[in-house]
Amino acid sequence: MTAIEGSVALVTGGSRGIGRALVAALYERGAKKVYATARDPRTVTHPDAVPLALEVTDPASVAAAAEQAQDVTLLINNAGASVNANFLDSPVEDVRREFETNFYGPLLVTRAFVPVLERNGGGHILNVHSVLSWIGLAGSYSASKAAFWSQTNSLRLDLKPRGIEVTGLHVGYVDTDLTVGIDAPKSTAESVAAQALDGIASGAFEVLADDISRQVKAGLAADPATLYPQLAA
């Protein structure tokens, strides 16, 4: 289990949406310092956060961020992209771009910060997935998040002997600027952040932050037609 109080956290994509809510929630729970990363650190608005420039797909940018944040004990891989490329019709470059951000990006960040966490006595990593990790309804986005989920499961085994715990967060639609045009039930970013930090504090392997995530996860053991009713037509 990892204490939030007194921790030093780094949140990728910390200037908006779930990332911004996580930064605020960390300070509310007594974090000592929170690095909030963004491509443009001027977009970080929390008054106490430490803005940090980071492009997760750029190895040099990742290395520079790790060099500046040597006191981190809690890493939150939240930054992501939503291209939703179609596997048959979209340019393959769009599929690659989604994987670069949603799979290879957090891998680069994790590899850079594992030595930091180890030097600081161990720690915790939270990876922000999606309910779409478990259901292929969004093309390359679903595939990249499914791959990220698998990465998290492998890292959990690799990092446990090093004293680093790993939690995966799954959630459906969240009420942020990215989902303004979507008419569907949405969780608040604050609720998702609170559940995520509860999971970190309790040492949970996974946090399922809404009903749809719990329903889809339960459906994985059933026939594919359960999750994809169009197959039964």
From TrEMBL:
- Fetch the Gene3D superfamilies from UniProt: NAD(P)-binding Rossmann-like Domain (3.40.50.720)
> Keyword annotations for this protein?
Oxidoreductase
The family database entries (Pfam families) matched by this protein are listed as: adh_short
Keyword Oxidoreductase recorded: yes
Source taxon at top rank: Bacteria
As for family, the record states:
Belongs to the short-chain dehydrogenases/reductases (SDR) family.
Recorded hits in NCBIfam families, A to Z, give: PRK08264.1-5
Which protein, by its recorded name, is this? SDR family oxidoreductase
Q: What is the protein's species of origin?
A: Streptomyces machairae
